[in-house]
Each structure stands twice: as C-alpha cells, then as structure tokens.
Amino acid sequence: MKSIVSKKDISLLRRCLIYLFPYKLRVTATFFCIIFCLILQIIEPLLMGKVIALLFDKEFKKLSIMLVYLFVIELCVSIFNFFQSYLFSSLSEHIIYDLKKDMFKKIIELPIEIYDRMKVGEFISRLQGDTAIVADILTNQFINTTIDILRVVIISITIFQISIPLSLVILISFPITFFIFTFSGKKIRKKSDELARLNDNYFANLQQSIVGIKEIKSLGIKDRNFNQFLNLAVKLRGKNININVINTVARSLSQMTSFLSQLSVMAISGFLIYKGHLKIEYFIAFSSYSGQLTGSLMNLTQTSSNLQRALTSLERIFSLLDEFGYKREKFGDLERQQIEGEIHFRNVSFGYNENLQILDNLSFKIAKNTTTAIVGSSGGGKSTIFNLLLHFYEADRGEIQIDGMDISSFNENTIRKHISVVHQTPYLFNATFTENMLIANETATEEEMIAICKKINIHDYIVNLPDGYNTMIEENGVNLSGGQKQRIAIARAMLKKSKIILFDEATSSLDNETQQSVKELINLISDEHTVVVIAHRLSSIINSDQILVIDAGRLVGQGNHRTLLNENLTYRKLYENELECAELIS
C-alpha cells in the first residue's frame, strides 16, 4: 500500500469521502442494485451452461423452463442496471454540485492577496475540471472498486468449487497486471500534475484573451495572441496524448496477460474434459466466470493508475478549500449601523512581502464630510492606502481608525456597508440599470434611486433609453461612456448609503468635459460623505479640502492646493510636470 499512496494521499481520500455522507441512502441503494446484479450474474452462467447441456441432451421441456429463467434473470439485470445507472449519475452530479458550492463559496471569501497572486484561469480550471474527476472517484472508482472486490471474492470461491487448476491460472495473472498498472500509475501522477498546471495556464490565457479582446485588437497582436493559444493547446494535446499512451500501453499489456491466461484456461479445460474431470456445462459457466473475474481484476489493477490522476485533482481542490495556506481575512465583532466618517491613520507601516515595504510610519487624519485627495508618484503607496482602508490587507504596524475605533474591531458587514469604492473603470454587471444600482442595497426603493440619478445628472439619459431603467447594460458596461459608468458606480455607492466613498483614479481616463462633470459630482456628494480621491491629474483635485502628498510610503506634504504649491517641493514638481505634459499634448 505504501508504494501506491502516501499518508498524505490517504488523508485526502478520507477527506474526500465526507462528500458521500449526505447521500448514504443513495449509496446504499446503489450498492443493493449492484449486489443484486452481481448475484444474478453469478447464477446466469450456471443456467447458461445447463441450457447448452440440455440442448445437447435434447431435453426440450426442461430447456424451455431454463430459457424462461434466463429471460427473467436478464430482465431483472436490465432493471437493476437502469436504477444503478440513474443512481450513479444522480450521485455524481450531487457531489459535483456540493464541491462547486463549497469551492465557489471559498473563492469569494479568499483574501484579496490570493487574487493578486493567482490567475483567474486557475480558479476556473479547479472549479470545472477537478470537481468532475473527484466526483468520479467517489462514484465510479470508490463504489465500483468495492463491488469489484466483492465480485472477485464471490467468483473466486465459485470457480474454485468448479476447478482448482483453472482458478489458479486465472488468479496468477493478477500480480502481473497489478504491477503493470502500479508502475504506469506513478508516471501518470507526474504527468497529471504537469497537465493540471497547463490547464491553469490555458484557462488563464483563454479568459485573458476574451476579456482583453479590445486591447488585443487595438494593439494589433491578434496573431501573437493566437499563437500563444495554439502553443498552450499543442502542449495540452501532447500531455493528454502522453497520458493516454501510458494508459493504452498498460491496458494492452494487461489485456495480453489476460488473453494468455484465457488461452491457458482453454487448453487445460480441453485436457480436463477429455479426461472426464470437467463437465461441458461447468466449462461454459467457468468461461463466463473467468471473463467476469478477469474484468474485475483488470479494474482493480487500474485503480492505482486512475487514483494517481485523481489525487492530483484532490490536492488542487483541497488546497483551494484550505485557502492555499494563506491567513484568513480577520474581522472583529463590532457592528455599527451608522458612522460619522472620520478616518485616522496612526503610524501605519505595510509591505506586501518582507522585501517590499510600501508604507513607512504613515500618519494622517481626514475629517468627516470633506474631500481629501491623495497624490504622489506611481508606486508610492496610494492604492495601498485604499487596500488597507477597505481591509483587503492588514497593516503590519500601526492603527487605522474610523470614528476613533480601530477598523480591525469592525465586522465585515460594517466595513463593506460604510465604505464604497469607485474605480477608474467601474465594473458593471450584465443586468439592467435598476439591478446594477440596487444590487448593493435591496431595501432601497426605486424612488430613492431616481432621486439620486437626478441629483448626479444621469436620470434624463436613462429615461430616454427604449426600456428606461429596465434597459440592459452589456457586460462591463461596453455600451456606456466612461462618465456614464462613473455616475452609475457613484449612484450605486450612494444607494448603498456608504458614508465613506473612495475614488480610485476615477477621472484619469476621462475626457476634460466628463472629468469636469465628475469633479462637480464629487464636490456635490462631499457635503454628506467623506470623500477620498486618488488622482494623477492634479487639475481634478485642486479644490479638495486637503491634499496628502505621498512619496515612497511617507507623508511629505499636507494642505490645500495653494499652500502646497507654495511650500511643498514634491507637490510643485508633480504640478509642473503635469503642466508640461498638457503643453506637449496641446
């Protein structure tokens, strides 16, 4: 056993069996169907042998009775096989559903850190491909292996009653085929690991190609992208062929061993019949039993090979369910229905890894119902401030407070409810305008939605559409302009009734006119919300109540536009660089 599976593998298999427990009745019913079929299939060869013997003896009356028995048995076998097939299919689909449910629930609960490090295709590969393989283990592999063991035991006892020499010939082939499939199984395990990684890359490339099709076309890299896809597809094809070749070689060698075994049985049987030590009817029954026994032994010897491939999928599924060894997101127990919206960073330090320090002893305070802009060169730590404020990551040192309370004391619902973020390219769902805006707050009314849409100047545009607020927004809002997307995202945040609204580079990709309208919108909502803006365009934030200048993770300036322009060298350089770029463009 040690050469086939390790302790770790046994642990994975035990954990896998948990998914069978909710379906004990289905499993039991399946076992009963298979056992009844097995009993009938044990009786059938004896009757068949009797039929042929009666045929030769011309006892037609007894023969007709035996034929009726055979018909009834075959009918019962067909019925039991139907129920067995249905139960197998039902069991497999239920297990796949349960696995996908647990995996997807875990996927949406994973720390953001994992999403920053993994490709989307890896999640899709595990969710789609690996679950089917594991379901196959729990149904076809586990149940059929158990039944094959029972069949081997029962048939072995039966054939030893018929002829010991013939039985030994059949059973002697088992160690040979077992060695063949154990040896090939080890090779398949290694190839399966490689295939799984290739599948991850394949799905990642596929997802990236479809999502980024506009960029691919505009850059003129369709051929390059197609060649990348072909390269991965060719590798996948080659790896699958390699695995199939190993399986085919192992199966062919095993079949040859089985054929030689059957050939030996025929030769020895002929000799025993000639000597009068074996009746023809028992030879016919033995031939049928030997076929069943050989098939079951073949299945058992292939179990190792199939198991090695399945263990790769088990490792991948459970590594996801175990969050890849990362620390879980930690939240407190404090729930607040209302907050004032004051933000305070107190000596906060943070790095995404030990060798990359992003924020260094950063401290600042943001008053409620004000607009604060965060500016600085790329990589200075601006987006990291938002990640920490949203509690996607935890600070290594220091404290982040809202209304004087550490955000780590809040539960997840409080943080998600009271803080919203509007990204540079807001993500809109393939749903109606109404559904997109009310998605974060199902208790909000249409009247509230319309009032907010009027306030942010998007209502007139929507009502003039053919279906008004029931008009479908295409995937990720491709049928909307950048400014319209921003307004829908802002409406969503306001309907969510978040006190703190973060704008992450929200105007950097907009034209001047749209940028101006979003600026006015930000000024409008800051009377009732704490607004924090990350901006590259300093012209979009010069009217902010305060501006924080971040450089290499440190606060190097704080004040309004005029004060910083006069007193802060870093801010002045940023502003002058922007003016120079504007002159070059014009």
Specify Rg, calculated over alpha carbons: 35 Å
- Helix share bin: 55-70%
Q: SSE order, as H and E? A: HHHHHHHHHHEEEHEEHEHHHHEHEEEHH
H/I helix tally = 19
Looking at CATH, the homologous superfamily of the largest domain is ABC transporter type 1, transmembrane domain
The tally of structural domains comes to 2
Q: What kind of sheet is the major sheet?
A: 6 strands, mixed
Q: Provide the CATH architecture of the largest domain.
A: Up-down Bundle
The overall pLDDT average reads 80
Task: Describe this structure in a few short sentences.
The chain is of the alpha/beta class and 586 residues long. The protein is built from 19 helices and ten strands.
Describe, in plain words, how this protein is organized in 3D.
- With 586 residues, the protein is an alpha/beta fold.
- The chain has 2 domains: 7-325, ABC transporter type 1, transmembrane domain (ABC transporter transmembrane region fold, Up-down Bundle); 343-585, Rossmann fold, CATH 3.40.50.300.
- 65% of the residues lie in helices and 10% in strands.
- The protein has a 6-stranded mixed beta sheet with strand order 6-7-8-3-9-10, with helices on both faces. The protein has a 4-stranded antiparallel beta sheet with strand order 2-1-4-5, covered by helices on one side.
- A hairpin with a 2-residue loop joins strand 4 and strand 5 (405-406).
- Helix 5 packs antiparallel against helix 10 and helix 7 (173-211) runs parallel beside helix 10 (280-321).
- The chain is elongated and about 115 Å long.
- The protein starts with 6 loop residues before the first helix and ends with a helix.
- The relative contact order is 0.08.
